[in-house]
User: Fold these one by one.
Assistant:
Number 1:
Amino acid sequence: MVNGLLFRIDQHLHSSTLRTHVQKPNVHAMCMDEDALPLFVLPMVLFPGEIQELRVFEPRYRQMLDTCILDERPFGLVLNDSFAPANGWDGPRRHGCEAIIVHHETRGVHHFITITGGRRFFIDEVIEPALPPFSDPSMSDLVSDEGMLPDVHTLMEQVPEDHPNPSLYISGKVTYLEEKGVLDEDTQDYLKDIVRKVVARAGENMSINETMLSEWIETICEENVTESVKSIYNIAALCLDGLEARQQLLASSTVGEMMNEFNEHLPAFIREWE
């Protein structure tokens, strides 16, 4: 828990100095429906303004990332839903967050990217990928005996020419959601108090003097707590770990709903702090 807090604190402290560096891929990407948002579906929830690092190795997401980088456009990061499959893959939950690529590099067949959360969205229509997962009997022969996955070109040869969605990844028609309302001073002070508790907990097992802790707190509060609704996401990114807790907050539509979800899922050490 402490290591996770320290990592997120470091992200907050360095977010203002993050520089964009996107390495262009050397492959030709798919033509993408400009009305559809490519979706990265995995057990993860991204908040607006939150910074995360991802390693991309699956062929379907390598294709998606190549296309996004070449077209200089974001993708959507959405929590997976095993009860709503899309051509055999885990489908997406209905609420997600736009992921803006701010850094990218390639090492072999792997992509390493840094993303920051953009706008929240609601998925109106899920567009299924052209091929099912490798567990499907029709795909099993494409995986080597050593478990090596085929490359994108080999997979695209399996897609019928007349397929309505000739891409390997899930995409969706989405509606972007407007952030409404402002935070009053009491709510801002409450969020700042949460920051103090989180940073103090993270520094418990470290040799950090009170002056440095105070500087951390002031820096995080100054940069992340304002009257903007996004302040709730900023502090939730710092202290909420559970996927369902984060998803419920992301799906909230009013300041009141957001604060209710935030308070309900706060870690026990924060609620019990005297």
Note: Confidence is low (pLDDT under 50) at residues 1-7, 13-33.
Number 2:
Amino acid sequence: MLNNYTLSDSDFNKLREIVYKEAGIKLSDVKKVLVQSRLLKRLRELKIVSFSDYYDYLIANYETEKINFINLITTNKTDFFREKDHFEFMKDVILPDIERKNLSELRIWSAGCSSGEEPYTIAMVIKEYFKNKKSPEILILATDIDTQVLEKAKSGLYSEEHISPVEEKYIKSYFFKEVINGEIYYRIRESLKECVYFRRLNLLQEQYPMKRQFDIIFCRNVIIYFDRDSQRKLFDKFYNYLKDDGYLLIGHSENITNVTDKFILHGRTIYRKAL
């Protein structure tokens, strides 16, 4: 039983410093209640009776516990076909452009992929476009800092309600139905899974392991959690990892104005490199 359910300002400040250090996310004061509620279950699991004691535990077991801590704090809201006009732009503009280039492979990075809905949506749109055409090899790198959502993404298993934004033609081609404990679920088919590679990556780490550039980078509804300096560093990395004729897509609520001048607007929150 917890003796102290209240997260003090002092402990909140110490914990949010770690969040910023490890994930680049700046938590405002109004996030204190959210942090408190997300950490309570972990405190119960560890039989720790106060947030102050949890902070001490985190520091004492930093390399192992920091992953659990970051997993609990990071936000993982996502959907299939979220911000659908981006995928319409892919079908109408980006993929015809790719087709004209006659590429042998198409390299895409879904940065901040959460539980996999975005990279699987990307894969479905591409597969459908090239269904009766000569298709490049599709290579989608999907990264996130949260190991728990990556495991869910790898499983490719989603509830019936969760796939409601997906058109029937995609469900028929790229999912199969499973019944688990009387509940209906849909699992991604292997033919789609084989296009997507899930890896843990902290976007704010100094060096990335990837060696080659990408044709398209998706980083949507991620940068809003970073401060201006972190955003600038991230866009510098995206610039270097994007091919000269590549595309960068960010979230509808995000804006790169006054952050970087390395990209030119090409559609609604769709950019290309400024050369």
Note: The chain has a mean pLDDT of 91.
